[in-house]
Amino acid sequence: MFWEIPYLILRRLRSRLEERDDAVPYEHYHRHRESNRREALRRRRRRIFPVRVNLSEINEHEILTRYHLSSDAIMSLYELIKDDLISTTKRSNAVPGIVKLLCALHYFASGSLQSTVAEAGGITQSTFSRALSEVISAILKLTDKFINYPDDDTSLQSIKDGFFRIAGFPNVVGIVGCSHVALSPPAEIEQIYRNKMHYHSINVQVVCASDMKILDVVARFPGSTRNSYILRQSGIRERFENGEFNGGWLLGEASYGVKSWLLTPVRSPTTKPEVKYNIAHRSTHCVVERTFGVLKSRFRCLDHSGGAFLYSPEKVCKIIVVCCILHNIAIMKNNHIDVAPDLRPAGESDEQADSNTTEGKMQREQLITDVFSGNFIFPSAFITLISVFLFFFVDRLIYLPLSPSPTRVEGTEHILY
């Protein structure tokens, strides 16, 4: 019955179908043309890269101010780690390894925000975040090279001589002490990172030499951990107990407890030799306090006055070790820096003292009897003052006039010689 439909109705239906078929290709054509136009615009748009930092264009004074390391120290370090900083990308504008290192050093030295350091280095914040991890991993490979105890008798004797020149304390091969580095802790375990100064931190143990070189570092314990516990859990304790340092002593604060290999000050001294011992101990132990002061002044990211770390505790511990390595490199290159006056003051020592051993007490009493019962051993600073005074006094005597003293004649205002 299809042929019974009027011809006019069929023609109208056919015209509508043709209009619909013609409309679809035109719409697709319009969309394709618009996409081609946008693609052409994207291809013509050139990326504008900021000017990246160049060490050769910075004078030495600005280098020391910005990075707290000399150009010689920076380039020596870069030669050791450059293979780990080479970019794997095949793009023509890959970030050079030296730029990654300079940005990381700027961050360590200033403690500024990542965005601020990245802008100064000519890279984006996300690029700097990746570069920082690369630099940290590369420098950590140098830990055994720059943080270690010497294994020869000559070097150990040199350490002993350095400490002896401070206050006459004999046979000392290291000073042990702890300091806190602030961080933002994980919320679920924040209480174990709260220290006795009521902020969250990592408790860092360091053993240093007389020239403030770091010989051993332990950076893995939360801020609530006692100093004496960190020492008991560290590998340096086992090495001293095994006699690896030819009977040399560590010096530590009273909270550690006196051991046969660790000497602490005498609590409530009653005799003059004990007072002399405590004075010499205090003068020598100040080295580790100054070491922490110089370390935090050189790398302000470690000091709480520059803000707390916002990384995970594991990454914060890695940054601490990296800063200790860089500190030793600076000591080797004679890059000196003064202790900053705005550092957070060190906290008080642990109230609970570790137990003293009988061997340690006997060792300390024998040392007091043999060394500090005789004439007082002056600290080196006092000897220096005496030497300066004698120098000027003798110099004054040499240049005094040899003519007789002047006399005054009565009735006149003239002086006769």
From TrEMBL:
The chain crosses the membrane at residues 376-394. It comes from the Eukaryota. The keyword Signal does not apply. GO terms for molecular function: hydrolase activity; metal ion binding; nuclease activity. Residues 177-328 form the DDE Tnp4 domain. InterPro entries: HARBI1-like (IPR045249), HARBI1_animal (IPR026103), HARBI1_dom (IPR027806). The keyword Transmembrane applies. Its cofactor is a divalent metal cation. Keywords: Cytoplasm, Hydrolase, Membrane, Metal-binding, Nuclease, Nucleus, Transmembrane, Transmembrane helix. GO terms for cellular component: cytoplasm; nucleus. It is found in: Cytoplasm; Nucleus. Belongs to the HARBI1 family. Transposase-derived protein that may have nuclease activity. Does not have transposase activity. This is Putative nuclease HARBI1.
